Amino acid sequence: MAKHKRPDSLTTLQRAIGTRISWARELVMPNQSECARLLGVDASTLNKIERGDRAPSVFLIAALSNRLRVSTDFLLKGVLNGRTDEELALRLAALHPELVLQRQDMAPNTDRNTSSDTPDPPKRPDEEIH
């Protein structure tokens, strides 16, 4: 048994990682037991990870990333990368708007100094097109 209580921030992070794993798995592989079998872990282990009761190992994160076709950035930080996560990123963002899409990763290779990287200024109400 641990001598010190785990910081709440780590518990929150562990739950968030589990939630993102669950979201991605449900889109790619709805059967949790089958996913666990393909990953070489017990179904109860994957269930505990998805609930946030257990932290996944770095090796399991890598295997999940590969199997679910998402970046480790998404699994660990909740950041969707358009070039890496492609279609799954858009499907996840549609189902879970709290996710963060990285704008520069969604655009084709462009120079960062171009005007296309800066948003258009907001239009005034009298400039609306009718």
UniProtKB/TrEMBL annotation:
This is Helix-turn-helix transcriptional regulator. Residues 32-75 form the HTH cro/C1-type domain. It comes from the Bacteria. It holds the Pfam family HTH_3. SUPFAM superfamilies: lambda repressor-like DNA-binding domains (SSF47413). InterPro entries: Cro/C1-type_HTH, Lambda_DNA-bd_dom_sf. Residues 120-130 have a biased composition (Basic and acidic residues). The lineage of its organism: Bacteria, Pseudomonadati, Pseudomonadota, Alphaproteobacteria, Acetobacterales. Residues 101-130 are annotated as: Disordered.
